[in-house]
Design goal:
The complex is a heterodimer of chains A (350) and B (203). Chain A is built from 16 helices and 8 strands. Chain A is an alpha/beta fold. In chain A, 43% of the residues lie in helices and 8% in strands. In chain A, 57% of the residues are buried. Chain A folds into 2 domains: 127 residues, Up-down Bundle (Glutathione S-transferase Yfyf (Class Pi), Chain A, domain 2); 189 residues, Rossmann fold (3-Layer(aba) Sandwich), CATH 3.40.50.11810. In chain A, the strands form 2 sheets. In chain A, strands 2-1-3-4 form a 4-stranded parallel β-sheet. Chain B folds into 2 domains: 100 residues, Orthogonal Bundle (Fumarate Reductase Iron-sulfur Protein, Chain B, domain 2); 94 residues, no CATH class. Chain B is globular and about 55 Å long. Classes of the chains: A alpha/beta (350), B mainly alpha (203). Chains A and B meet through helix 2, helix 4, helix 5, helix 6 and helix 7 of A and helix 4, helix 8, helix 10, helix 11 and helix 12 of B.
C-alpha cells in the first residue's frame, strides 16, 4: 500500500465498546441506533455498553455559538469520565458532529495540555468526576466498515436489482465533520473516504461518482435552525441532488444523521416548491443511514428498523432488491395497532 | 482588551490561523461563499492585518454569521488554516463585547440560545421530538408531523425505554445528569455568555 493511503487508515478497536448516542439520529431515525447495537451484539458477537447517564455532547450548541468551547470540552470530559467509571476504553460516537468534536477536543488537549488540566478542574468542581481519554475513538460507520465482510457473509440480501441482476447505484455522502476536520481520523481521509464505499461494494452495490460528491449537505447549523435562514440549507442540498441526478442513483447513504435527514427532507420540500424530483421513474431518491443499510442487507424487517420514519418512501427500493415486508405494518405501534397514516406520498413503479 | 488580543487569546487561534498566502482556496470550496456575499479569504486577511477599527466593524456586522461551520475549508487549505474556526472565535468575541447585537444575524443568537441552549439544560438533548414543532418546520413534511403527533407510540415501537429513565432511545435524562450539566454550564462560563446574549439583545 502506498504511503499516502497508509496515512488515511485508522485503528478501529475490535471489541468492548462504549456507545454514545446522537441527538439528531434518535429524533429522526429512531430505529437506527438500537439496530446498530443489535448488529454488534447479536450478529457480530461484540460487547457494547450504553450508559444511561450520558447526555448530548452539546455539539449543535457549540457550532451555533451558544455554548462556549470550555463548556463543550467539560461535557465531553464528563462522557469520558462515565466511560472510565464503567471500565471501557473504546468509544463509538453515533453522531458525526460529536465525532468531529471529540477529535478536535483530543487534538487540542494533545497540543495544549494546560487546557486539558483546566477542563479536568472544571469537571471536578462541577461533578466530582475524573476522566481519562479513550484509547480508541471511532464513529459508528467505522465499525460497520471494519466488519463489512463479516456482514456480507451473513447477509440475506445484496444491493442488486433482482430483475436486471445489475448492482444498485449508490451515492455515498460523508458527513463533513467525519473527515474534513481531521482527515487522518477518517477511513480514506476527506478527499477519498472509503468508509461508506467500502460498505456499498462489500454488499454488492456500485458507487456513484458525481461532481458535487464532497459538497456539504447544507445543515449549516444556524443556517437551518433559524427559520428565515433555511434558504442556505436547501440550496446546498439542491446543488448535490442536481449534480447526482444524471447518474440515476437508486439510493443515497450517509453516515451523518443530519445529512441523512436533510437529503431526505429537502427532496420533499423541493418537490413541493419546485416540482423537482431527482430519482428515476418520477420518484425521489431514498436516503439510508449506514445502520439502516446494514440492517436491510441482514434481513431485518424494514418497519422494525424505522424505514417508515423517512419522508422519502422506500418501498420502490425494497421491491427492486426483493426485500420482504408487510405494507399493513408500516404505520403500526409495537402491538401492531394502526397509529394513523401520514399524508400519502405517491410512488411510481418503473 | 483590544479586539485582536482577544482573538489571539482564544485557544483555537493557533490552529485556525497559522499563516495565509491569500490563495483563496477556502473561498472556492466554501458553501456559504457560493450563497452569500461572503469571502473567508478576506476575513482571514483582515484578521491578520489586525486593524482595530476594521475588526470592530467586522464583529459588529452580518459578515461573521454566514459561515455554516461545515469546515470544508480545513482540508483544502495549503497552510492548514481553518477559517471556520476563526469565525467561531470572532463570534465569541462579538458576543462577549456585546457587538453581536448590532447585526441582524448576530441578534439571532437570542433565538438559538433560547432554543438549542435551553433544550440542552432542560432535556439533556440539543433537540428533542417535543421541541421540533411541525408548524415551524413545514420542510420536515407529513411524516415528521405524524411522528411528532404520535411520538409516544412511534418512538416506543423502537424502544420501550422511550422517555423513561435508564438506557435507550431518547431516554429521560436523569435529574442527576441534568444537575451535572447545569453546574458545568455555570462553572465554565456558559451561563455568563447567555446573560450577555440576553442583555445585548435587550438593548
Amino acid at each position: 500500500m502506498k504511503q499516502y493511503w497508509k496515512d488515511y487508515q485508522k485503528e478501529i478497536a475490535d471489541d468492548n465498546y462504549f456507545y454514545v448516542r446522537s441527538c439528531i439520529r434518535q429524533n429522526f431515525f429512531p430505529g437506527a441506533e438500537n439496530l446498530f447495537i443489535d448488529i454488534l451484539k447479536n450478529k457480530l458477537g461484540k460487547t457494547v455498553f450504553e450508559d444511561a447517564e450520558h447526555t448530548t455532547c452539546t455539539g449543535i450548541g457549540y457550532h451555533t455559538d451558544v455554548v462556549p468551547l470550555e463548556t463543550t470540552m467539560t461535557v465531553i470530559a464528563r462522557q469520558f469520565a462515565l466511560m472510565k467509571e464503567k471500565g471501557y476504553r473504546n468509544m463509538i460516537a453515533s453522531c458525526v458532529t460529536s465525532f468531529g468534536l471529540y477529535s478536535e477536543v483530543l487534538d487540542m488537549w494533545k497540543h495544549q495540555p494546560e487546557l486539558k488540566e483546566k477542563i479536568a478542574g472544571y469537571l471536578m468542581e462541577a461533578t466530582g468526576r475524573t476522566f481519562e481519554e479513550p484509547e480508541n475513538m471511532v464513529h459508528a460507520s467505522d465499525i460497520l466498515y471494519k466488519y463489512r465482510n463479516e456482514i456480507a457473509s451473513i447477509a440475506k440480501y445484496k444491493l442488486i436489482n433482482k430483475t436486471t441482476g445489475e448492482p444498485l447505484k449508490v451515492v455515498d455522502h460523508i458527513g463533513c465533520h467525519y473527515a474534513k476536520t481531521f482527515p487522518e481520523r477518517g477511513v480514506g481521509g476527506s478527499e477519498f473516504p472509503q468508509v461508506l464505499t467500502g460498505l456499498i461494494t462489500a454488499w454488492g452495490g456500485q458507487t456513484v461518482d458525481y461532481p458535487e460528491r464532497r459538497h456539504c449537505c447544507g445543515f449549516g447549523f444556524r443556517n437551518y435552525l433559524v427559520q428565515p435562514n433555511r434558504g442556505y440549507s436547501i440550496s446546498q442540498s439542491k446543488i448535490k441532488l442536481e449534480s447526482m441526478k444524471p447518474y440515476e442513483p437508486d439510493l443515497i447513504i450517509a453516515n451523518c444523521p443530519g445529512c441523512s435527514m436533510f437529503l431526505d427532507r429537502w427532496q420533499y420540500t423541493l418537490e413541493e416548491t419546485e416540482g423537482a424530483v431527482y430519482g428515476t421513474c418520477g420518484n425521489k431518491i431514498p436516503v439510508f443511514t449506514h445502520e439502516e443499510l446494514a440492517g436491510l442487507v441482514l434481513g431485518y424487517d424494514p418497519w422494525e428498523i424505522g424505514l417508515q420514519t423517512h419522508q422519502v418512501p422506500v418501498e420502490a427500493l425494497l421491491d427492486k432488491i426483493g426485500v420482504e415486508y408487510n405494507p399493513d405494518l408500516k404505520y403500526t405501534d409495537r402491538q401492531g395497532n394502526l397509529i394513523g397514516e401520514p399524508e400519502l406520498i405517491n410512488q411510481h413503479v418503473c | 482588551m483590544e479586539i485582536l488580543r482577544q482573538i489571539q487569546a482564544d485557544p483555537r487561534y493557533d490552529e485556525s490561523c497559522r499563516s495565509c498566502l491569500n490563495c483563496g482556496v477556502c473561498t472556492a470550496i466554501c458553501p456559504a461563499a457560493g450563497y452569500f456575499d461572503y469571502d473567508p479569504r478576506k476575513i482571514v486577511n483582515l484578521v491578520r492585518e489586525g486593524d482595530e477599527t476594521t475588526l470592530t466593524e467586522i464583529i459588529s456586522s452580518d459578515l461573521i454569521w454566514y459561515c455554516g461551520q461545515c469546515m470544508s475549508c480545513k482540508p483544502r487549505c495549503p497552510r492548514g488554516n481553518v477559517p471556520g474556526i476563526l469565525i467561531q472565535i470572532l463570534r465569541t468575541v462579538s458576543i462577549n463585547s456585546g457587538l453581536f447585537a448590532k447585526s441582524g444575524l448576530g441578534l439571532q443568537q437570542l433565538v438559538l440560545k433560547r432554543g438549542i441552549g435551553h433544550n440542552i439544560l432542560e432535556t439533556g438533548y440539543c433537540i428533542h421530538p417535543t421541541r421540533v414543532d411541525p408548524a415551524v418546520h413545514p420542510e420536515q413534511g407529513p411524516v415528521w408531523e405524524w411522528m411528532s403527533t404520535n411520538a409516544d407510540q412511534v418512538y416506543s415501537r423502537f424502544d420501550t425505554g422511550y422517555d423513561k429513565e435508564g438506557p435507550g432511545l431518547l431516554r429521560k435524562i436523569s435529574p442527576k445528569a441534568l444537575g451535572e450539566l447545569d453546574r458545568i454550564f455555570d462553572v465554565t462560563g456558559c451561563k455568563e455568555l447567555w446573560r450577555k446574549i440576553e442583555d445585548g439583545a435587550a438593548k
